């Protein structure tokens, strides 16, 4: 008996590496990111012009960011300006803290630079800035086990000066040093106008020092899992380099990040504009990012919406197989009076079944879907993948 349990434990933990439970309330919050807020953030960001480190436009953008966080309900004491000089530049990072309920002294850092060079930088990195603002807005009143620190860095384009300063003067300034669970960097996720932007790179630490590489691989796999669960995007892995996670990586921290898969030629030119990127892609990356931040920081599951609380017994009964499926998928539930709905990630119902155990999915195109089984007013949602 003991042997059996141990064996089961081993199987389950290796399974967990590539699989996470879909949490409906995480999805519901990811869906609160609106295209109009993303568009507004991008166009307001563009309006400040070239936000070169140390310039007036750069500090105007910082003040704009500050006013955004205040408008979301963060108090002045949650928002800290972090001034620095480096490489002949003087600028400020903007640091916003949301305190965790269970581990207030352990941080999930969500970061991206707001300085630009040679252009308005709407993709590099207005895209990341826009997403971070939406995450901060939506999570403002959602309890999280871990503290979240939203950091808008400056000085990235000249050589990661703002993030290097932060690691040297904030992370390492206390004894023991600041306890960081993960650094999640979002930089240049705007895609290319007119192309199909359906994939995002998940950045993994593959460089020296290597002691933190395995942990980065694990958390980056979790980032990819969250992308599949909470957004319509596909993922690929690439090595993390040349952005604000690097000083953290060199400090031994666990890092991960997002970077566009269709790599635009416009960044660092005057043509890095709203018109040349894909705001819908930014929205989709935002959904993935918000799913991941909730997972990393362990956001509260709403009792009325969460998978576990909404239908614990039903949850135990559901076992999708095979998954990925080709023509049929079995849902494992017994008895009668249950209904199954399969929807795509936009929420549109594509198939509906009554009391059927073996579902004909042969007409569904390849991709990720959500399968919801309902009985007696309770429902359970699982991710279903169709792969032919
Ligand atoms: Zn950038």
From TrEMBL:
<dbReference type="InterPro" id="IPR045175">
    <property type="entry name" value="M28_fam"/>
</dbReference>
<dbReference type="GO" id="GO:0008235">
    <property type="term" value="F:metalloexopeptidase activity"/>
</dbReference>
<feature type="domain" description="Peptidase M28">
    <location>
        <begin position="93"/>
        <end position="290"/>
    </location>
</feature>
<dbReference type="InterPro" id="IPR007484">
    <property type="entry name" value="Peptidase_M28"/>
</dbReference>
<dbReference type="Pfam" id="PF18962">
    <property type="entry name" value="Por_Secre_tail"/>
</dbReference>
<dbReference type="GO" id="GO:0006508">
    <property type="term" value="P:proteolysis"/>
</dbReference>
<dbReference type="InterPro" id="IPR026444">
    <property type="entry name" value="Secre_tail"/>
</dbReference>
<feature type="domain" description="Secretion system C-terminal sorting">
    <location>
        <begin position="320"/>
        <end position="386"/>
    </location>
</feature>
<keyword id="KW-0732">Signal</keyword>
<dbReference type="Pfam" id="PF04389">
    <property type="entry name" value="Peptidase_M28"/>
</dbReference>
<protein>
    <submittedName>
        <fullName>M28 family peptidase</fullName>
    </submittedName>
</protein>
């Amino acid at each position: 008996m003991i042997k059996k349990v141990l064996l089961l434990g081993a199987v389950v933990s290796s399974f967990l590496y590539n699989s996470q439970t879909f949490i409906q309330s995480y999805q519901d919050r990811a869906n609160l990111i609106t295209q109009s807020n993303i568009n507004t953030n991008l166009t307001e960001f563009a309006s400040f012009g070239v936000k070169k480190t140390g310039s007036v436009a750069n500090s105007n953008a910082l003040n704009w960011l500050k006013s955004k966080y205040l408008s979301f309900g963060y108090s002045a004491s949650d928002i800290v300006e972090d001034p620095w000089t480096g490489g002949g530049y003087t600028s400020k990072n903007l640091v916003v803290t949301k305190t965790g309920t269970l581990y207030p002294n352990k941080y999930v850092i969500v970061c991206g630079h707001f300085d630009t060079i040679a252009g308005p930088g709407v993709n590099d990195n207005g895209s990341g800035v826009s997403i971070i603002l939406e995450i901060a807005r939506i999570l403002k009143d959602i309890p999280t086990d871990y503290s979240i620190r939203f950091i808008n860095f400056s000085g990235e384009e000249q050589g990661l000066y703002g993030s290097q300063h932060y690691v040297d003067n904030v992370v390492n300034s206390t004894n023991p040093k600041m306890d960081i669970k993960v650094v999640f960097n979002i930089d240049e996720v705007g895609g290319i106008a007119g192309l199909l932007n359906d994939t995002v790179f998940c950045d993994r630490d593959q460089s020296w020092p290597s002691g933190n590489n395995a942990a980065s691989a694990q958390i980056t796999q979790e980032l990819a899992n969250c992308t599949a669960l909470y957004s319509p995007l596909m993922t690929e892995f690439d090595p993390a380099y040349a952005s604000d996670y690097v000083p953290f990586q060199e400090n031994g921290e666990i890092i991960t990040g997002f970077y566009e898969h269709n790599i635009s030629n416009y960044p660092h030119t005057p043509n890095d504009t709203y018109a040349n990127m894909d705001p819908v892609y930014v929205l989709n990356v935002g959904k993935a990012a918000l799913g991941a931040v909730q997972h990393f920081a362990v956001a509260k599951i709403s009792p009325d919406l969460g998978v576990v609380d909404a239908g614990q017994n039903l949850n135990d009964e559901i076992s999708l197989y095979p998954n990925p499926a080709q023509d049929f998928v079995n849902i494992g539930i017994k008895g009668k009076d249950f209904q199954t709905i399969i929807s795509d990630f936009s929420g549109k119902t594509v198939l509906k079944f009554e009391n059927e155990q073996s579902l004909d999915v042969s007409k569904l195109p390849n991709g990720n879907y959500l399968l919801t089984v309902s009985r007696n007013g309770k429902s359970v949602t699982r991710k279903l993948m169709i792969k032919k």
